[in-house]
Specification:
Elements (H helix, E strand, L loop, with lengths): L1 H11 L19 E2 L7 E2 L6 E6 H6 L5 H4 L6 E5 L7 E5 L7 E5 L2 E2 L17 E8 L3 H4 L6 E7 L6 E12 L8 E16 L7 E13 L9 E14 L2 E15 L14 E17 L3 E18 L8 E21 L3 E21 L5 E23 L2 E12 L3 E15 L2 E12 L3 H5 L13 E14 L3 E18 L11 E20 L2 E17 L19 E12 L2 E10 L2 E5 L9 E5 L2 E13 L2 E8 L18 E11 L1
Parallel strand pairs: 6-9
Antiparallel strand pairs: 1-2, 3-8, 4-5, 6-7, 8-9, 10-11, 10-33, 11-12, 12-13, 13-14, 14-15, 15-16, 16-17, 17-18, 18-19, 19-20, 20-21, 21-22, 22-23, 23-24, 24-25, 25-26, 26-27, 27-28, 28-31, 29-30, 31-32, 32-33
Amino acid sequence: MKSRLWIAAMLAGVPLAVQAQDRPDTVRLRDLVVTATRLETPIGAAPGSVTVVSGAAMRESGHRFLVDALRAVPGLAFVQSAGPGALTSLFIRGGEADYVQVLVDGVQVNDPGGAFDWAHLRTEDVDRIEIVRGPASVLYGSDAVSGVVQIFTRAGGPPRLDVGATTARGDRRGTMAGESFDTHALDAALTGRSALPFGRDAILRYGLSAAHATSTGLFAFNSDYDNTNISGRVRLEGLRADVSVTGRAMDTEYHYPTDGGGTVVDRNQFADGATRTLGVDAGLDLANAVELRVLATLHRSESRTDDPPDSAADGRFRSTADQLRRAIDARANIGLPHRTVITLGAEREWQEAQTAFASAGGGFDFSDETDEERANTGWYAQVHGTPFNALSITIGGRLDDNDAFGTFHTGRAALSWHPLPHARLHASVGTAFKEPTFFENFATGFARGNPDLEPERARSWEAGAEYVLRGVLTLGATWFDQRLRNLIQYTFTTPDPESPNYHNVGAARARGAELTAAAEVGGLHATAAYTYTSTRVSDDGFGEDPAFEAGRPMLRRPAHQASITAALRLTPALDARLAARWVGERTDLDFTDPARFSGVRTTLEEYTLLDAAIAYAMLRGIDLTAGVRNLLDTDYEEVFNFPTPGRVFHVGVRAGVGL
């Protein structure tokens, strides 16, 4: 009864209420983005489709994990295998989960080979997120196949100290129905800027953030999750030069009682991880015609999975991985007439990985260790300009020389044309690649890697239009098409024990449409988005994998997704927000039958989720957020046989003071 009264009270104050994100930048043509071209580019001139989400909007909506804040972005499909901390994947436009390059302040944080777990990124230190849909290997190399997501952290502004706390309580599902789980978080941030005594325009911008979150999870036991994150960024600019230093440290621990099929079987297995990231970006402007930039990055990821024995008859499994990426990128931006910039760049990257697997007892003893490294050198060039006031053109190419797979080239061409002041047509075509993982290249033991693997390849194109009606309503439509080949597959049968298990044999395609609308009238801002994605396997290679059957859809990509969000300013101090999201049927695998260890195809039902929230400026410098996620208590699955949260109530308070 108390829950129903709270819901009724909130709905009374939310006539049209909540936005889960800032409106897509495909309808904000005046904004500047940098990820699409690595230059400050107006959104209307950027190649491909770009969306920008503000950190402030995410926090006001009560979202503390990026996976929740980005679900309404067109073309994106997130899949999480359980509650907080569980493995989370992102599919953009039907591409593979490892086809998305992820950057934090310019530093790539993917594992070598493209894998990235979205479960642990939080919103507290985020200034904005730029999402580029479409191939971007020309500028970013491997993994930027279906898109690039870049997270920019907060720095600058009037000196200020902020502290915040959030708490949430939600319902568990299935056999734990009637029970609840809790999530709590604390964070603090120091941001500011100051003029320096040397140089008329010398400015120091800084930001430092720390956050800790914990959750009891969606299971009755062995379900705890902890996340500690510290990040900082300092930028010095002036005297025609600038330099930025960014650093991040994150430690996580996730306990889970399930096996690969979602069956609750274990009371003590867990996974923990530690990542360390460092980036230095420096630039020098020469006579307003040439800009020289150097970016040096380091990202280290350490992870461990440990399953101690549950009983005297049980065995123990343990695995560890230590992966290191170091890179240096140097480029020159040369200004020409007609607002044209030529970018010439070179990148050198070194990758290292040490892995260990060990299983003892329980009738299966096994151990294996690897220690490998590889390096890549890439040269790239791009021309981006506006030869006419209404027409922007981007053309680029890249050549990579890799220790493991030799040379590889990619290219991209795009245009953006404004035939009318309030209308835009855009189109692009490009190629991209994804390098093999270390395991696919170098594994030994129960699986053997293939050092002769080639990169997975993609050819993509898109075409679209946007129209702004009387400055109030903005409409957008984009058609996209991806062709994927050289996909790496695992085969269970080999001619002899020395033969590799991984080969380039698969092919697939993904095509579809993204439709967007945004309206702003008075204090009301509303957006709507619909994404249609059709995926098909065109070559199933060995034909052994039920996840990759010729003529069938690819797993966990919904053919249909839609969202509607609205934000209403009720008073100068009170905002109300509402978000509805519908996800259509998807294909998944059922691993619950031990006799079918490779899984059996199944269909996940469609579902609709409704979220509501309010943001209230209580006093000067003190803000309150409150809301409900999954307001209708919808029962749904993102991964077959794994639980999802029921109705979740959340409250947050944030206090800030100027310094």
